[in-house]
Amino acid sequence: MEDLQAKKPLVLIVDDSPLNIQVLGEALRSEFRVKVASNGALALRLAVEEDQPDLILLDIMMPEMDGYEVCRRLKEDAKSKNVPVIFVTAKNTGEEMARGFALGAVDYIVKPFYTPVVLARVRTMSISS
């Protein structure tokens, strides 16, 4: 059982809302391993660990370090630059989306999210990465 679990892709959920972490985690745990970070600094540390995430779901609006800054730093670090980032956020204007893509995000999920859509997008990224 542990061998099967270890072969599942690892998704890092980064959000300052415990409820969002809980909902996303519950939606993903049947198909993916899940790690969580409630702030950008922890996300940056977890992104370069030996058990590196295969995908990062990243909130934009967080205190201290927002998701844009986290994404910028992830893409500057040789150890984490190739980890796909999907923003999960209420910021849904074209300008904000374009900024996220310019920083290296591969997709954008708007809150409130619909978990089947989140699962479909995560599956697509974990298959293609």
Write the layout of secondary structure elements.
Layout lengths: L1 H6 L2 E5 L3 H11 L4 E5 L2 H7 L8 E4 L8 H10 L8 E5 L4 H9 L4 E4 L4 H14 L1
Parallel strand pairs: 1-2, 1-3, 3-4, 4-5
Helix pairs in contact: 2-6, 3-4
Helical residue percent band: 40-55%
What integer value in Å does the Rg equal?
13 Å
Summarize model confidence as the mean pLDDT.
91
Report the major sheet: 5 strands, parallel
List SSEs in N-to-C order. HEHEHEHEHEH
Coarse structural class? alpha/beta
The number of domains is 1
CATH architecture call: 3-Layer(aba) Sandwich
Count of DSSP H/I helices: 6
First CA to last CA: what distance? Answer: 24 Å
Uncertain stretches of 5 or more adjacent residues = none
What is the assigned CATH homologous superfamily? Response regulator
Instruction: Provide the CATH topology.
Output: Rossmann fold
Number of strands: 5
Overall morphology: globular
Strand order of the largest sheet: 2-1-3-4-5
CATH class: Alpha Beta
Strand content: 15-25%
Structure description:
The protein has helices at residues 2-7, 18-28, 40-46, 67-76, 94-102, 115-128; strands at 10-14, 33-37, 55-58, 85-89, 107-110. The protein is an alpha/beta fold and 129 residues long. A five-stranded parallel beta sheet has the order 2-1-3-4-5, with helices on both faces. The radius of gyration is 13 Å and the shape is globular. The model has no long low-confidence stretch (mean pLDDT 91).
